[in-house]
Amino acid sequence: MTATAQQLEYLKNSIQSIQDYPKPGILFRDVTSLLEDPKAYALSIELLVEKYKDAGITKVVGDRSTWFSVWCAGLRWRWA
């Protein structure tokens, strides 16, 4: 599945942008809003898995619990 412009726009709009956080000049992209939208969350996982399904990935390391939950959801599709 290749992402359409409409799908990418939907995902982009589901991510909250917070200006000047945590300090002036920073535009923080908060993916919490994406995770709270079941349609956006499912679409993001579907596109992520599609992009990397043939990359031979066997392990994933992350420094944030948010991304851990994203990859765990992706694993469902990998071994389904």
TrEMBL record:
<protein>
    <recommendedName>
        <fullName>adenine phosphoribosyltransferase</fullName>
        <ecNumber>2.4.2.7</ecNumber>
    </recommendedName>
</protein>
<keyword id="KW-0808">Transferase</keyword>
<dbReference type="InterPro" id="IPR029057">
    <property type="entry name" value="PRTase-like"/>
</dbReference>
<comment type="pathway">
    <text>Purine metabolism; AMP biosynthesis via salvage pathway; AMP from adenine: step 1/1.</text>
</comment>
<dbReference type="GO" id="GO:0044209">
    <property type="term" value="P:AMP salvage"/>
</dbReference>
<dbReference type="GO" id="GO:0016208">
    <property type="term" value="F:AMP binding"/>
</dbReference>
<dbReference type="InterPro" id="IPR050054">
    <property type="entry name" value="UPRTase/APRTase"/>
</dbReference>
<keyword id="KW-0328">Glycosyltransferase</keyword>
<dbReference type="GO" id="GO:0006166">
    <property type="term" value="P:purine ribonucleoside salvage"/>
</dbReference>
<keyword id="KW-0660">Purine salvage</keyword>
<dbReference type="GO" id="GO:0005737">
    <property type="term" value="C:cytoplasm"/>
</dbReference>
<comment type="similarity">
    <text>Belongs to the purine/pyrimidine phosphoribosyltransferase family.</text>
</comment>
<keyword id="KW-0963">Cytoplasm</keyword>
<dbReference type="GO" id="GO:0002055">
    <property type="term" value="F:adenine binding"/>
</dbReference>
<dbReference type="GO" id="GO:0003999">
    <property type="term" value="F:adenine phosphoribosyltransferase activity"/>
</dbReference>
<dbReference type="GO" id="GO:0006168">
    <property type="term" value="P:adenine salvage"/>
</dbReference>
